[in-house]
Write the structure tokens for this entry.
Amino acid sequence: GDQVEQSPSALSLHEGTGSALRCNFTTTMRAVQWFRKNSRGSLINLFYLASGTKENGRLKSAFDSKERYSTLHIRDAQLEDSGTYFCAALYGSSGNKLIFGIGTLLSVKP
Amino acid sequence: AQTIHQWPVAEIKAVGSPLSLGCTIKGKSSPNLYWYWQATGGTLQQLFYSITVGQVESVVQLNLSASRPKDDQFILSTEKLLLSHSGFYLCAWSLRAVEQYFGPGTRLTVL
């Protein structure tokens, strides 16, 4: 079936450094969303991309539907960036189906 | 003002008892609505979506049902809860099947 493979499952960074999260898709997806889980367990929207790249502060995301992957880059990581990040891919003829990755637990250390 | 409300915030229910979870959207005309569920330690899964009043599509079968009685309301229910229904339930909305926005969630514990 359609799957979203998110990696890494856990990531540890020192303050001021950066890294990337990646999601690979087993089939062509219409768009991708990136979220961060809040303290209560709900989701904060970070990015929505149907193609190309978007940047917001220290976060940058890219989506290549043809090559079936998306990335989320974090630069100059801060302690408050710690948390769980999810990608989710939009698929299906109606565009209403969203399938999630397993999440990446990011820990930023001093 | 918050666009999406879910109720209750949390619920503890007995196995075999009925369940009704609600979701209300404010200030959006004819939104697409969605129900998601995450078991503890599991991946968030889409359960249902609705494009319009009275129409609901099932994505994953979990012995649950959904209804959309009004344009701004989405209900998730079952007649008999199972232990496996425990978890975190999220409602979401979008306009024209583009970016989805999530509600605060309901935590359900089935004992």
